[in-house]
């Protein structure tokens, strides 16, 4: 379950969506997934509302999952 008020790390998203870390990084770099870089060590944080919007945008009508 995605909480709109929570901030997610790349590792969180990898686990939630069952995709590779590089896939999430590619989405962030391409601007497909909104996130904020907090620093080299802290990494990215993605707002739950942005993650939900990303999933809603990419989930097909059959609800079969996220298109990489």
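^ Assign residues to that structure.
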């Amino acid at each position: 379950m995605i909480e709109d008020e929570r901030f997610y790390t790349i590792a969180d998203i990898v686990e939630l969506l069952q995709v590779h870390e590089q896939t999430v990084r590619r989405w962030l770099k391409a601007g497909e997934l909104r996130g904020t870089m907090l620093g080299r060590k802290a990494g990215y944080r993605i707002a739950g509302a942005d993650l939900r919007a990303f999933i809603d945008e990419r989930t097909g009508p059959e609800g079969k999952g996220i298109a990489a």
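Residues 7-58 form one domain.
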